[in-house]
Design a protein that fits this description.
about 270 residues, ABC transporter involved in vitamin B12 uptake, BtuC, 12 helices
Length: about 270
């Protein structure tokens, strides 16, 4: 692995993994404690519609995908706030329609040559420097926004009704949270792909929650675990010539099951 560090693409991959881990640590923690994993999955898969629209209308990839993802996240936020008993159905429909829309637009795009697999399963080894700067800007924005609204997000995450009574703008924060999820999804597509994003957003926070006594500590441990999974996955994919995004998630999945089995064993003992 050390000899691979001389290559620019590997250096970019390591930096992308570090920035993705920071994003996943913060946003993933908020996703898990607010129990909105299904919503996050809906946003991630619906983002494929934005990819198709961007290519069909010859728009910049980030502009098309981010705009569509933010629109979908706003619709999901409105539905889950006003009609919670029907939220899972609407999210499922948006999930499926977004994916189908992306496929149709890509089919209709003349001379389309892009590698669809890289958007579905990620291509962290192909992340350019321009994307690294964007990921850095997004990660810093997420850090600043989360830091500024930390106490309000904490209150909303653990007791929404109490937070609302205390004057916390719960609805606004909820829209903001889903918007940050949409932005994070678009930034992480290059790293692990649409299919695997949800795992990177949920596995590290799930494990970190067991060893955390505060939301901040959970975010910190989640980011650390994400970085460990990413670097181990990169090393294994390099050693055995496998798809990096899938290997990263398999490393995280292995850690998830080990953690689960360890908890069960500890309960029996």
């Amino acid at each position: 692995m050390l000899e691979a560090l001389q290559f620019e693409f590997m250096q970019n991959a390591l930096l992308a993994g570090l920035l993705a881990s920071l994003i996943c640590g913060i946003i993933g923690t908020l996703v898990v404690v607010n129990r909105i994993v299904f919503i996050s999955g809906g946003i991630a898969h619906a983002a494929y519609g934005g990819i198709g629209i961007a290519f069909f209308f010859d728009l910049p990839y980030l502009l098309g995908t981010l705009s569509f993802s933010l629109l979908v996240s706003a619709v999901m936020a409105a539905v889950t706030l006003k009609a919670k008993h029907r939220a899972d159905t609407v999210i499922g429909v948006l999930w499926a329609v977004g994916m189908a829309l992306g496929v149709i637009f890509l089919d209709l795009t003349p001379g389309y040559k892009a590698d669809v697999m890289s958007y579905l399963f990620g291509s962290i080894l192909a992340v350019p420097k321009s994307d690294l700067w964007l990921m850095f800007a997004v990660s810093m924005a997420i850090v600043l926004i989360t830091g500024y609204f930390y106490n309000d997000l904490l209150a909303m995450s653990y007791d929404e009704e109490f937070a609302s009574v205390k004057g916390v703008p719960v609805k606004l924060l909820y829209y903001l949270l889903l918007g940050m999820i949409a932005v994070s999804v678009v930034m992480l597509i290059r790293v692990v792909g649409l299919i695997l994003i949800i795992a990177l957003l949920t596995i590290p926070p799930y494990i970190a929650e067991k060893y955390s006594d505060s939301l901040f500590k959970m975010m910190y441990l989640s980011a650390l675990l994400s970085a460990v999974f990413t670097y181990i996955g990169l090393w294994l994919s390099y050693m055995f010539n496998l798809t990096s995004g899938a290997v990263i998630i398999m490393v995280g999945g292995a850690a998830f099951f080990i953690s689960f089995l360890f908890d069960r064993l500890k309960e029996k003992l």
